[in-house]
TrEMBL record:
Keywords: Hydrolase. Transmembrane segments: none annotated. It comes from Cytobacillus mangrovibacter. Belongs to the peptidase M20 family. InterPro entries: Amidase_Cbmase (IPR010158), ArgE/DapE_CS (IPR001261), Bact_exopeptidase_dim_dom (IPR036264), Peptidase_M20 (IPR002933), Peptidase_M20_dimer (IPR011650). It comes from the Bacteria. This is Zn-dependent hydrolase. GO terms for molecular function: hydrolase activity. The keyword Hydrolase applies. Residues 217-304 form the Peptidase M20 dimerisation domain.
């Protein structure tokens, strides 16, 4: 079996762990995700790696280096998905890291620095509304007071979900590696957008990662009979929510030059019925940008809109901040190395920001960090039809292997 076939088999093995009929559903801290996690640990063990799982559920698979005491070089991503997601988001980065190790073992290469594969827990926000929990824990950024009581769609809290997996929320602080020296971290990921495909480029070298502000808005009006309540006497919570959403779109479009985006991704009409004027609606808002100033302008306009809609439609609107994260810049030095690798291999590349969040954004707090994109067909992501061509993934793996080798040897250059 050649490396191409071997990698495809590996990808297929991971994606057999799925609880849905459409796409891939492997939600954080569920049976499917935990089973997949333990299967991946066995795959790493088969390559001679030392395996451990930290207090948040992150997998750390270590390949020792030649020289004792040197800081490790890390690479990885995540195995959890959104509801009805695809086969590539996150999984490519984890499986690519294992493929790099397989290649090093195959070639008999012993690096100076140890190399670690990291599979981060709960990268997706689809279950609890907060993303990258595993890498937050590793970076010492996990706030148990803020997130412990967040609930999933079934009413289970994060603390309860952790307990069912034999994790204790009060122990997660011990997953932090802030006091440890780490040489570098690398994440290979599908782009999740159309830019590389449209520009006919094979590699995206990510310069910075946009970060979200996420809000929950409760809009309260008066439930009333749809047939007997005149239009001018209604306090329709859904129409108020709709007005807010449309105004949010308007201001986000004005901020497009800064790469800013805004989304209303959840709309929940409480006790909704066809013959009832909606009395209470919850919407969840995601605003993100690599520009703090631009994101703040959108947020300020949103709050002005909330005040105006509440007053003119006679609605009570309560806002709650779920999370607010800061955009990050990635290592210019690492990006320079990746750029040289691409040029040496005659690979067309883009220097580009990431509008989506990734575990790399938290690893910046621990060490120099690089994020490499490979193309997504039609830019589809978080969708059953997301697709990245196998040959493009293999190109990304080759770049990942070379940059990891560069950082895991004491004397390494491109001469």
């Amino acid at each position: 079996m050649d490396s191409r076939q071997r990698y495809q088999v590996l990808l297929n093995k991971i994606n057999q762990y799925n609880s849905g009929d459409k796409g891939i559903t492997r939600i954080a801290y569920t049976n499917e995700e935990q089973t997949c996690t333990h299967a991946f640990m066995r795959m790493c063990k088969a390559e001679g790696l030392d395996i451990r799982m930290d207090q948040c559920g992150n997998i750390i698979a270590r390949r020792e280096g030649r020289i004792k005491g040197l800081p490790p070089v890390l690479m990885g991503s995540h195995l959890d998905t959104v509801y009805q997601g695809g086969k590539y988001d996150g999984v490519v980065g984890v499986t690519a890291a294992l493929e790099v190790v397989k290649r090093l073992n195959e070639k008999g290469i012993v690096t100076d620095h140890p190399i670690e594969i990291i599979s981060f827990a709960c990268e997706e926000s689809s279950r609890f509304g907060v993303s990258t929990l595993g890498s937050k824990a590793m970076a010492g950024l996990f706030d148990k007071e803020k997130v412990g009581n967040l609930k999933d769609r079934d009413g289970m809290t994060l603390e309860e979900a952790l307990s069912l997996c034999a994790f204790e929320i009060n122990s997660i602080e011990f997953a932090s590696r802030r006091d440890e020296k780490i040489k570098a971290f690398f994440e290979l990921h599908v782009e999740q957008g159309p830019v590389l495909m449209n520009d006919n480029k094979k590699i995206g070298i990510v310069t910075g990662i946009a970060a979200p502000v996420r809000l929950s808005l409760i809009i309260m009006g008066t439930p009333s009979h749809s047939g007997t309540t005149p239009m001018n006497m209604r306090k329709d919570a859904f129409l108020g929510a709709s007005e807010i959403a449309l105004e949010l779109e308007k201001i986000a479009i004005e901020e497009q030059p800064y790469g800013t985006v805004a989304t209303v991704g959840v709309v929940d009409i409480h006790s909704g019925a066809m013959n009832v004027v909606p009395g209470e609606v919850e919407i969840k808002v995601d605003i993100r940008s690599t520009s703090v100033d631009s994101r703040q302008r959108v947020l300020t306009h949103l709050f002005q809109t909330i005040e105006l809609v509440g007053r003119t439609r006679q609605l009570e609107i309560i806002s709650h901040e779920i999370i607010s994260e800061e955009p990050v810049l990635l290592s210019a030095e690492i990006n320079d190395v990746i750029q040289k690798i691409c040029e040496k291999r005659n690979l067309p590349y883009n220097m580009m920001p990431s509008g989506a969040g990734h575990d790399a954004m938290n690893m910046v707090k621990l060490c120099p960090t690089g994020l490499i994109f490979v193309p997504s067909v039609n830019g589809l992501s978080h969708h059953p039809d997301e697709y990245t061509d196998l040959d493009d993934i293999l190109i990304g793996i080759e770049v990942l292997e070379e940059v990891v080798l560069h950082y895991s040897k004491i004397d390494s250059d491109f001469s």
